[in-house]
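Cont'd.
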Amino acid sequence: MELLIGQMFAGLSLGSVLLLAALGLSLTFGQMGVINMAHGEFMMAGAYTAFVVQQAIADAGVSLLVSIPAGFLVGGVLGLVLEAVLLRRMYHRPLDTLLVTFGVALVLQQAARDIFGAPSVDVRAPAWLQGNIEVLGAPIPLTRLFILALSLLCLAGLVLLLRGTPLGRRIRAVVLNRDLAETSGISTRRSDQLTFFIGSGLAGVAGVAVTLIGSTSPYLGTSYIVDAFLVVVAGGIGQVKGAVIAAFALGVLQSVFEYSTTASIGKVLILIVIVVFLQLRPQGIFSLKTRSLA
Amino acid sequence: MMGLLRGRLGTAAGFTLGALLLLGVAPAVLPVFSLGLLGKFLCFAIVAVGIGLAWGRGGMLTLGQGVFFGLGAYIMAMHMKLADASLFGGSGVPDFMSLYGSGEVPGWWEPFRSPVVTLLAVVLIPGLVALVLGLAVFKRRVKGAYFAILSQALAAAFAVFLIGQQATTGGSNGLSGFRSFFGFDLKDPNNKVMLYLIAAVVLLLSIALARQLMHSRFGELLVAVRDQEERVRFLGYDPATIKTVTYVVAAVLAGIAGALFVPLVGIISPADVGVIPSIAFLIGVAIGGRATLLGPVLGAVSVAAAQSALSSTFPSFWVYFQGLLFILVIGFMPGGLASLPSLIGRRGKFRTAASTPALPVAPAPASPAALLKPEEEAAMPEEARR
């Protein structure tokens, strides 16, 4: 029983990290079709933001609370710059955005190596997040519980924004039909910029969150980006609820596979599951119903 | 130079010139060490020919060519390890296995003792993997970004798998320390020259194959699938078959290149096959001109040469440079260097080509199909059916 709960929680926790990483992607990928390989590096930037903030503010608790909005801002601004300088001229070539943003990712990674050095750095977790709580006899680390709560909070915020505000209505209108939205007087240009700002900002928050469970290195982004994209693909492009289900399902499956086999075989099994799943539902768990053939 | 290669006669002349340079001039003037280095670049060029077909011509952004490269390379490396162990060690067990593993050769290594099985497997296994994956993906009309991400995940999973199996694949160290190649001593300079010559011949053959494919009816269909997949389907062709065949050809070329890479370079490790090297294969193709015949080859060789010249002396600078190459070439010159003449000479024309949703293709002399307007494109398969 303890083992089962421990495993389930490990899966949920992994899923919450995946969700944080994938939420922003499902926005930028879903709305604009931009495949942002630098998303992982925006996470890394968020993680280093947490590190820098902690250098300035000694108290780990205060610095964590400051880091979360700071990470959002750093990620968001990086995203805005990327969108304004490169991506907006490439909306008609979605596949090429993948390669351009890969170039951006390489540059950001090397910049992090030159600024912070190649060895990884650590961010201290505040005292109130150290230790475990027991649930039915299974020890559950508080940091992981915090990340789970943070990712659900971000999800709730995003859903509220998309469903409950005029801004969200405009964003959804652009996702459904860009041309019609434009003829209805919505500035797709502004909507694109805002979407990219929010999506990249969420990457920054994810970066701050993962500093609690591991150390921060210039390679942080590369370890999350592929999994985050798999979540978006399996969930259905542009579908927030699909991303939620896919993230937790993949998290639980991965921790089960890794427990019953090894970490490396687990990775391969996950990929096979996704390929088989796409055989059944090529558009992911949820897909936008449109009349287009693509 | 490209302009001179117009026509069948020009192509034959160009091909002969290339063969003379690679097989005659290079071995005569270059020292053995540089020749080995050039051989390594040629391996990347062979991969690039396949990527040019799949990505440039077929529009399939394959981010997992490192997997097929790695399959070919590891199969060859396993054979060479086993052969060395029986030739020099006597025990028949590769050195690293007694170090990390049980000291016994696992069952799935055994077939690769045979040179014949190895040579067949180098071609067949990457081809089969690509066939299964291609059918699974393309038949269900998974395409575009979905395919790109899946192929990338494949590369990530492959590297993780190799690192995890320390006892049987050498883990993150990979396989290295080879002494012989099908009985030939790898230290002998004559054998090194022979390896280079094999790589050069394979590259020439793969260029010839790619040219024939591009100029065949199949090649025209492939371009049509890239630009208007639905129209091709409505005309009664199965785009999935066309894409799968191309993907398999690209995979087999990558597998052969990997198998040549191992004896030439002397090591294969997960660092050569993962996500980053897989994407890095693409930049040379993009610089040279992804949809042209020779662009990918020249691009891949120049990028590999630049990397080996710059990355050891200025490692930090090289990464920035590589990143900027991706940003500038893909962002601002998607046709690659091959499109430069038309960018300068016929600005207006290029702009209209770039404003269509299809990829702005370099107007290479060897690609009449790439220049077709949508109406002509749709008409083309009909023509082919007559």
